[in-house]
Design goal:
The chain has helices at 2-12, 37-40, 54-72, 129-132, 141-149, 164-177, 201-204, 215-229, and strands at 18-22, 28-33, 77-82, 119-124, 153-159, 186-195, 232-239. By secondary structure, it is α/β, with parallel strands linked by helices.
């Protein structure tokens, strides 16, 4: 019943997805959103999966493959790491990804990025990575990264499709439209490189103030909303000559 309902919604709210071929001709940057233990590694905190999760594991695998190729080609990478002060809450979420703990670190399969010269890592203490890139002097580390590398396309992967990924994508699109991200032209979301969490309704009903969050449906809605705001959504990524 649930799966048939989701399929019906997908028919009513279709997400047109393309295939993406990346080449040296157009400067492309890879953006990794919150692929940290606190969201991806089983048992690593309040918002981590409680058991192995196929969608999240698939997202991590696709992100690692892309990061490897980008590093081989010496193309720019920007990685957001959710990282919070223990005394500053982020409602409506419980404490998570506390700075200095293992929760706020990249997943083991991506920790090698810390030593890559073409990778910029940014700890953020809010949902939206674009806002989380603002420095005390008003400058923006992500904006500077786009400008300094003369990036025309960003390829976005990570977690959660409908939360941190979506917020970052929407802010980047608005900034692009206002001319704050020159020369950026396209914001591209790789669907198989994104994932979200699963909180079925029967579980949510047993928790105080919890809102159901069916994984497959909310992943689709996140992609649909990104597409509606002007992002391109792709189902395949390959590299041309």
């Amino acid at each position: 019943m649930v799966s048939s309902t989701i399929e019906l919604l997908k028919e009513e709210l279709p997400v047109n997805q393309e295939s993406l071929v990346l080449s040296e001709d157009v400067k492309t940057g890879l953006v990794l959103v919150d692929i940290v233990n606190g969201f991806c590694t089983v048992g690593s905190g309040n918002l981590a999966p409680t058991q192995p999760d196929e969608q999240i594991s698939g997202m991590v695998g696709e992100s690692v493959k892309l990061a490897r190729v980008f590093c081989e080609k010496k193309w720019p990478i920007f990685a957001f790491l959710d990282s919070h002060h223990p005394d500053i809450p982020e409602p409506p979420y419980p404490p998570h990804c506390i700075a200095g703990t293992n929760e706020s670190k990249l997943v083991p399969a991506l920790q090698w990025l810390e030593n890559e010269p073409n990778a910029t890592l940014r700890c953020k203490d809010c949902i939206d990575g674009f806002l989380g890139s603002i420095e005390k002097d008003g400058s923006n580390l992500f904006v500077d990264w786009v400008r300094n590398n003369q990036i025309k396309k960003i390829l976005v992967v990570g977690i959660c499709t409908d939360v941190c990924v979506l917020d970052f994508v929407c802010s980047s699109l608005s900034a692009r439209n206002r001319g704050f991200l020159v020369p950026l032209e396209d914001v591209i979301v790789y669907s198989n490189g994104c994932a979200t969490f699963d909180l079925p309704i029967h579980v949510a009903k047993t928790m105080k103030d919890a809102i159901a969050h069916p994984q497959e449906l909310m992943h689709h809605i996140g992609l649909y909303m990104a597409r509606g705001r002007g992002a391109k959504v792709v189902s395949e990524v390959s590299f041309g000559a």
